Amino acid sequence: MIVVDAAHCLVISALAFSLWKRASTEFKTIFWPALLLKLAAGVSVGLLYKFYYETGDTFTYFFDGKVLAVLARQDWQSYTAFLWAGDESFPVWDQLTFQQPRAMYLSKITSVFCLITRDNYWIISLYFSFISFCGGWILVHMLTRLDASLRMPASVAILFFPSVVFWTSGLIKESLAMAALYFIVVLFLKGWTSEKVRYWQWVMLPVSLWLLWNLKYYYLAVLLPVLLTALAMRFFVSPRFPVGRPVMSLILWVVIFTIPLYAASVIHPNFYPERFLEVIVSNYESFIEISDPGDAIVYENLQPDAGHILWHTPKALLSGLFRPLLWESQNGLQLVIAMENTVLLICFIAAMASWKYVFRSTYRVLIFSAIVYIFLLCVFLALSTPNFGTLVRYRVGFLPFFILLILIKNPLTRRLGAFIERTFFHIGR
After folding, report:
1. Measured CA distances, 346 to 324, 340, 381 (Å)
2. Fewer CB atoms near the end CB (10 Å): N or C, the chain?
3. What is the pTM of this model?
4. Between the CA of residue 311 and those of 300, 319, 320, 383, what are the distances in Å?
5. 377 or 56: which carries more pLDDT confidence?
6. pLDDT of 155-187, one tens digit each?
7. How far apart are CA 182 and CA 132, in angstroms?
8. What is the biggest distance separating any 2 CA atoms in the chain, rounded to whole angstroms?
9. Which residues pair with 387 in a beta bridge?
């Protein structure tokens, strides 16, 4: 077993070295610190659930994956059939803890890694973390090619911000989901800049879409309408109907956005207009029932109608971005989260000094698209998932982009950014 584990570590190291060799010179100095941080975070996720929570989805995915791996070793044909269309007709069904399709989807993926690693949770965790790192690393490079000034903000937001790194690592849904989301955004930016998309990237696009849809469909349901609207503005609307005033172009963006948004609302039952608000309130009530007092966002008299949802939207937005606050912390983990949220709040306030940048920037459509994505996903998650412990994990779907935005042109972080540039990016030059 030790030889097999060592072999897998060598495989990850070889893949990492190959990725490092292709990196531009200014990024090579941060590659290994970022990767080691990511791998350590993946192991830490397992340790957190093993010794602090003493249970958790991560080990349930693993145990279900082992059950399916046993089936594969005994009856490969039944195993492959189950991967494609697993249901209660299979004898192995009753042995699985997660029988909900989206949870089982990750268990199926985990079973493949169980076969490869001989059922080693920690090696699987390293693989998941490495896949997540690759997605973030590629996106940081793409953002830097878009604008060199984004190098430091993107690196901090995606590769080094603590909760982003931690909750997109290890054997959890978010690791693979965010890798897929990052890759989709990379291809979107390639399309935006008319950069050539390689054949393997075209192949990976439907894979990423399918992966994200099955793991975190609500991420994709918000992301796709935003990206399609931005592309429509870039290639169809702006060239044919040039709008002089930035405000008018943003208004036009909102008008166009209603088309893909409506399309997204009919592709999943939970987003049907007649059910959407009921799903939010139902999820909210379920989380409130299992949350300790003070450990969740409370919306007084939340009802499944547009008026109540809009009334609570400001609180949901601010809570999703900045809570829990320091005085709301009830344990050590919440205190760490609250300290991080305090940093975000300070940076956000400082960023308001440069709010005109949104309208003056040549990338204002991209910036506005990111703001809409952050706003919609943040409000949806904060309303439907009010528990602080769960929300801090789920919000990684939008948090890296929020951090990126508030670090751009931020007078408070400009000097810190210059120090980081001198210290890390220029070492070895």
Report:
1. 14, 10, 22
2. C
3. 0.92
4. 10, 14, 15, 12
5. 377
6. 999 999 999 999 999 999 999 999 999 999 999
7. 9
8. 67
9. 296
